[in-house]
């Protein structure tokens, strides 16, 4: 009996497919860490660029943990990855950000204001929209996020390596969209 018999083919495929998402999250986190000076003020356009990186990291990280059409999500237990309590809390925070703000708009989580300004020569006040454009994760959370993503990636790579030695027929595949 295989050491990996507890891992279904669907779980294995989800784990392997998660590599792309988690690598994308890792790159987005790396870009944030290398480009953001936490002691500096930024113009709105720069903040929006950083928010794009953060959004990519949040969505790409969360995707493997969402139950897809296959009915399977990434199992950290199957990978042998045990998150610390702070990592579990951060994972929950990241997934909540994805669910409430980033991928969906939950009114209770929105942060903006519209103010009206009167100008000479105009017959009515003009609206001015302002939104919170800042990064949602702190510098410390980004460091922890980076470590967590890399730990999960290492778990997937270890699983692939170990399975390729014991049951290579389960690992060596070529998957294309629309082809069963």
Write the layout of secondary structure elements.
Elements: H1 9-35, H2 44-62, H3 76-79, H4 85-102, E1 112-117, E2 126-131, H5 139-166, H6 168-171
Antiparallel strand pairs: 1-2
Helix pairs in contact: 1-2, 1-5, 2-4, 4-5
Fold and architecture overview:
- The chain has 180 residues and is mostly helical.
- Helix content is 56%, strand content 7%.
- It has six helices and two strands.
- A two-stranded antiparallel sheet has the order 1-2.
- The two termini are 27 Å apart.
- The mean pLDDT is 90.
Radius of gyration: 21 Å
What quaternary form is this?
single chain
Tally of individual helices: 6
Q: Major sheet: order of its strands?
A: 1-2
Largest sheet: 2 strands, antiparallel
Shape: elongated
The chain-level mean pLDDT equals 90
| Sequence of secondary-structure elements | HHHHEEHH
* Share of helical residues: 55-70%
User: How far apart are the first and last residues' alpha carbons, in Å?
Assistant: 27 Å
What is the number of E strands?
2
Task: Kindly name the structural category.
Answer: mainly alpha
Low-confidence stretches: none
Proportion of residues in extended strands: 5-15%
Brief summary:
The chain is mainly α and 180 residues long. The protein is 56% helix and 7% strand.
Features:
180 residues, mainly alpha, 56% helix
